[in-house]
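We emphasize that the prediction below concerns an isolated chain of 161 residues; any contacts that depend on oligomerization or on bound cofactors are therefore not represented. The input was used exactly as deposited, without trimming of termini.
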Amino acid sequence: MRFTKPILIFVIASLFFAYFQARAQNPPGDSASKPADQQDAPPPKAPVKPNKDNATQNAPDQPTWDPLRAEKDLEVGQYYMHKGDVDAAIDRFQDATLAKPGYAIPFRFLGEAQEKKGLKKQAIKSYQRYLDLYPHAEDGDKIRKKIEKLYKEVAKEKEKR
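Result of the prediction step, given as a token string:
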């Protein structure tokens, strides 16, 4: 039987992974070597010390720069928009802006979803961020008109109050 080099590397890596994973689950010095009276006794509790390491407290649960996740969030957000679930679409577009902060497209979609939901001030901010990131956008004039329209609607709402 003849293995190619990548397959052999994969098999060896898999074996190492399985070995270390099994070793982590069953550490050496199992309970059989302890006297019977100490096997079920809980370990002595050490005094609780405050965690002074801020790195673990502030670590995000997802990486901040993840362009593939941003693209997937855009796809799923557009799906939700077509389905009519604007709240879910907004969440996905916001996730896309966090996953790839300098990417303009999620801000345009976010503005559209916010506008559809009636969040006019937020939509203005999203559209403006889109234009800031992509000043020579093909649809720049259309977006500027939307911003003007939204500003007028916000001003009318203020006058009614």
